[in-house]
């Protein structure tokens, strides 16, 4: 049997006992140059590139078939064509911005600001708040609007205050000035003065933003208010003007969940205290910033120079066709996904995946039954939640209807606006209706997976179900170390520091006894402390934020632990064979490590440490150091690089 391990990627001079990531991936890392259009590159990126090429082939084949007007195939082809028509886009320059800029010129009051923000939301321009329709965390049987903090142009509030981001902060006003100049709305020194006002306003907004750690807290970010409560929280904010601009249905904001109430209070104060001229500057900046990817080369180049080169150290913008594919994916993703599944996802892969999921669920069940730190009452609730899990594999059972979306082959910015408005309307239409438990929040061609606590579901799109994650013809050990551990990771999110606060129905409810929660939190704190001391080889001198990454680290740890247990369940009653000189347990850990093969530019690695809830790739691979099963598989001893004394190994599940 083929093992499914790429031995050519490894570095035999590095022992797995010292560095599992380096042993399994070191050869690939040493000889691989990050593509010029990427900040990081690895297994996920390679699979995404492959899926991207497959999607381009699908799009071009559809377009060449000259489909009938109004069909979804025609919309796919016309949308792609509108982006690829570089000559027309260059001829138009920034003229497509004129209607937006004229509307902003007419802004005279804070009510006007809110009205324009509502209108701009429908065109793809984010504002002071980002409304998200999702299931109510405390009542998963209904939809509600969440109001998420927004309004800044840098990646995170920390960029406006931390010394570590001083260079980015210094470069930012010049970028804003150049973009405002390119928009045609300013001439001479006026753009510099406007940029200074914009950055000052964003700095004020950022001061009230919650940080990344606070934003992970499911309880802290849940404040349900009715319309009167929202108006009390945000006095003098004209929500009626905003809702009219959004074209929201009646009663859309009768109840909302304020994710960060401090931001809403600060926003209300700023709308009253900041002069209208500054708000007009900021609105113009928001427009040219959001719509830059769809404008002439000069605007695209300036936008990339800051957000690509300066922020992430990426030297080259992605090819135009790749950016065109991304647009089609965003606007018509499930239409393309239906064709992708027909061409690239064999039915037997779904059957094999369901078998893996069953074994992972059984491994979790046995684990909960034997956890020494979990009491009977909490165990009963945990098992009930496990029984209620819904796995979704490959693709949705019903596909999205795009019949009401209008696409024109010669109107790129109009297409972007109409596609955004389509999504805004589709989501707002959920309010007051039954929860759609068949909906997917990723397309089948997405190389990723997710856990949704509100629906208590794990979702694995078709595109991730390929080597090295999953090889239908390869050895079980490598599949369990790859996709099996990823399945365990996603199930584990249902029991991580935040997911564990939701019950089996998807409701935010404390189902833990105090002593069991204290035991769990103590283990999570040990994991936080462990990762706080680590730094990635891609960003030497920069430590991981253990509190930011703890949820994903718990997911990795649980995925490894339960994935390994599920692998043993898969061959109960028989001994795993030795293949390629490796035992089954060793192949399992190889399978895990090769999933995280990759490297990053230093600037991008530093950026991700500030905002990404995932640990760097090398540290994810080497999370195996916490497992006694890893120490036993490779005879890891004191003094070895991966050695962790038994009493310091963190084990939650």
Automatic annotation (TrEMBL):
GO terms for molecular function: metal ion binding; metalloendopeptidase activity. GO terms for cellular component: plasma membrane. InterPro entries: MetalloPept_cat_dom_sf (IPR024079), Peptidase_M13 (IPR000718), Peptidase_M13_C (IPR018497), Peptidase_M13_dom_2 (IPR042089), Peptidase_M13_N (IPR008753). Residues 16-396 form the Peptidase M13 N-terminal domain. Keywords: Hydrolase, Metal-binding, Metalloprotease, Protease, Zinc. The keyword Zinc applies. Its cofactor is Zn(2+). One of its GO terms (biological process) is protein processing. Pfam families: Peptidase_M13, Peptidase_M13_N. Residues 448-647 form the Peptidase M13 C-terminal domain. Belongs to the peptidase M13 family. This is Putative endopeptidase. The lineage of its organism: Bacteria, Bacillati, Actinomycetota, Actinomycetes, Micrococcales.
């Amino acid at each position: 049997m083929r093992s499914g391990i790429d031995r050519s990627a490894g570095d035999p001079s590095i022992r797995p006992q010292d560095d599992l990531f380096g042993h399994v991936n070191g050869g690939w890392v040493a000889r691989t140059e990050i593509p010029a259009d990427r900040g990081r590159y690895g297994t996920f990126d390679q699979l995404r590139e492959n899926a991207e090429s497959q999607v381009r082939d699908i799009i071009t084949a559809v377009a060449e078939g000259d489909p009938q007007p109004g069909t979804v195939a025609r919309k796919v082809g016309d949308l792609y064509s509108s982006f690829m028509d570089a000559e027309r886009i260059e001829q138009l320059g920034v003229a497509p911005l004129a209607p937006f800029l004229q509307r902003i010129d007419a802004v005279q009051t804070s009510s006007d600001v809110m009205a324009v923000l509502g209108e701009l939301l429908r065109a793809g321009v984010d504002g002071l708040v980002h409304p998200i329709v999702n299931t109510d965390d405390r009542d998963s049987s209904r939809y509600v609007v969440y109001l998420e903090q927004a309004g800044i142009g840098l990646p995170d509030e920390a960029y406006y205050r931390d010394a570590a981001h001083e260079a980015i902060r210094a470069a930012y006003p010049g970028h804003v000035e150049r973009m405002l100049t390119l928009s045609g709305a300013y001439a001479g020194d006026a753009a510099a003065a406007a940029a200074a006002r914009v950055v000052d306003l964003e700095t004020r907004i950022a001061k009230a933003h919650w940080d990344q750690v606070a934003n992970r807290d499911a309880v802290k970010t849940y404040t349900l208010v009715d319309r009167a409560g929202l108006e009390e929280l945000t006095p003098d904010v004209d929500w009626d003007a905003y809702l009219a601009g959004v074209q929201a249905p009646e009663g859309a904001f009768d109840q909302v969940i304020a994710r960060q109430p401090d931001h809403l209070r600060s926003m209300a104060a700023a709308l009253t205290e900041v002069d209208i001229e500054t708000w007009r500057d900021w609105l113009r900046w928001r427009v040219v910033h959001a719509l830059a990817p769809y404008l002439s080369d000069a605007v695209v180049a300036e936008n990339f120079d800051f957000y690509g080169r300066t922020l992430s150290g990426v030297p080259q913008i992605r090819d135009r066709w790749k950016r065109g594919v991304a647009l089609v994916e965003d606007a018509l993703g499930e239409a393309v996904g239906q064709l992708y599944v027909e061409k690239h996802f064999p039915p037997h892969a779904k059957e094999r995946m369901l078998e893996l999921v069953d074994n992972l669920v059984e491994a979790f069940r046995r684990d909960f039954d034997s956890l020494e730190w979990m009491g009977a009452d909490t165990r009963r609730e945990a098992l009930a939640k496990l029984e209620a899990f819904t796995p979704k594999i490959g693709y949705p059972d019903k596909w999205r209807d795009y019949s009401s979306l209008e696409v024109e082959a010669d109107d790129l910015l109009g297409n972007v606006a109409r596609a955004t408005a389509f999504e805004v309307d589709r989501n707002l239409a959920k309010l007051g209706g039954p929860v759609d438990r068949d909906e997917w929040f990723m397309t089948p061609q997405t190389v990723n997976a997710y856990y949704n606590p509100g629906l208590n579901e794990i979702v694995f799109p078709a595109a991730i179900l390929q080597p090295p994650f999953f090889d239908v013809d390869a050895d079980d050990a490598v599949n369990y170390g790859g996709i099996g551990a990823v399945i365990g990771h996603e199930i584990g999110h249902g029991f991580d520091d935040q997911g564990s606060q939701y019950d089996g129905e998807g409701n935010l409810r404390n189902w833990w006894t105090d002593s069991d929660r204290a035991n769990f939190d103590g283990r999570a704190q040990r994991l936080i402390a462990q990762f706080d001391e680590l730094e990635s080889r891609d960003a030497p001198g920069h430590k991981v934020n253990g509190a930011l990454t703890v949820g994903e680290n718990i997911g990795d740890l649980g995925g490894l632990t339960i994935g390994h247990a599920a692998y043993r369940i898969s061959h109960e009653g028989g001994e795993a064979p030795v293949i390629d000189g490796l035992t089954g347990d060793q192949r399992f850990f190889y399978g895990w490590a090769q999933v995280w093969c990759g490297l990053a530019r230093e600037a991008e690695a530093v950026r991700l440490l500030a905002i990404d809830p995932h640990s760097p790739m090398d540290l994810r691979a080497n999370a195996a150091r916490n497992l006694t099963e890893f120490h036993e598989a490779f005879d890891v001893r004191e003094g070895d690089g991966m050695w962790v004394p038994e009493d310091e190994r963190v084990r939650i599940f």
